[in-house]
Amino acid sequence: MKTEMFSPLKVMQGVALRTAMSVAVSIAVATSFAAMPGEAFAKTSTAASKSAAKKASTTETAAAAAPRAKPVKAIRAPAPAKAAKVAAADDDDDAPRAARKRRVTYRMDPHSRRSAVHAVAFQPRTPSVGQAFGLHETADSLALRSSVAYVVDQNTQETLFDKNSRAVVPIASITKLMTAMVVLDSREPLTDEIQVTDEDRDYEKYTGSRLAVGSVLNREDMLHIALMASENRAAAALSRYYQNGRPGFIAAMNAKAKSLGMTDTHFENSTGLTSLNVSSARDLVKMVNAAYQYPLIRKFSTDSSYEVYTGKRNIAYRSTNALIRNPTWDIGLQKTGFINEAGECLVMQANINGRQVVMVLLDSSGKYSRFADAGRLRAFLDTATEPHITSADAGGGA
């Protein structure tokens, strides 16, 4: 009997029967649990609604019993100027506000964003001194964008073109030609190393520089990038390493100007990053002629590119004068300059149609307009038979 009870067939039948019953029970339990959440949530929602209604009734009763308070105007935070608030399309506007769930999205309006950025970031450029004094209103047959233009024959000093040449205006980095002459006149070794410090930062215009504080270059390299690439910290460091310090350097610049007969000229620093460095086009012709006598100034100012090692990294510089890279121009010396008060400036010694000329363009409006004006003047000189004088004060001697 016991053997029949534990036979394999009986055991398998019992296991199958228990398994079938277990599966059936599991399905029944799962079905009952699946039906429960809806009822539970319904009961919870009903209970919550009754609780909320009871609280609301209590609140209304208390509010009615209490004295009426003065209505207070709600203060809303200003909506973001750059985004539009958009409600979902399937919202039910008639549903009670407390029970309604709203999905809110934010959509960027590109036009609004653009106008907001311009309103914050854009500031009109400060008018130049030439614009403030009406120099741009002086008409000329070439329609130059420069308010001051002066061209002379370098050998005879004959005036070939004159527009407001006596006006005294800021000259920006044209200053660096005088800086270079004072450095070379000092006869300090060009191999001496010079380190850039915080004293060489621009604390007036707050311009940047690729020449980081701590950079070390020799005097020759500092002079090279100051003339070719108008590197301001290089010019500042050169003045600080002068034998009598920076004040002595500025005094030497003004003494040099006086010795050259530059009576309209005054310098306050070695970089040109100040509106107090002023001169006239006639004086700048004298400065260009004097600087042309220095072979290093001619070479450094007309290089198209130069690379220096600062002790930490290599820096590749390029000339600030686009005409240097133009093979149709034969330029022997040049310098560019810009600050808001001076506008775009350019001085050059060039060979035009076999004639050595000195060209001065000051207070030009537009980044490339000074170079375009130089092209117009060159075309004029190719065909001109008489000098062109447009400024009211052009008469008289130099």
From TrEMBL:
The active site lies at 173 (acyl-ester intermediate), 176 (proton acceptor), 230
Gene Ontology MF term list = serine-type D-Ala-D-Ala carboxypeptidase activity
- Signal peptide range equals 1-34
Please report the stretch or stretches of sequence annotated as the Peptidase S11 D-alanyl-D-alanine carboxypeptidase A N-terminal domain.
139-364
In this chain, substrate is annotated as bound at 335
GO BP terms in the entry: cell wall organization; peptidoglycan biosynthetic process; proteolysis; regulation of cell shape
Q: Which Pfam families match?
A: Peptidase_S11 (PF00768)
UniProt keyword RNA-binding present: no
Keywords attached to this Swiss-Prot or TrEMBL record, sorted alphabetically, are:
Carboxypeptidase, Cell shape, Cell wall biogenesis/degradation, Hydrolase, Peptidoglycan synthesis, Protease, Signal
RNA-binding is among the record's keywords? no
* Family the entry assigns: Belongs to the peptidase S11 family.
Q: What is this protein called?
A: D-alanyl-D-alanine carboxypeptidase family protein
Name the species this protein comes from: Caballeronia choica
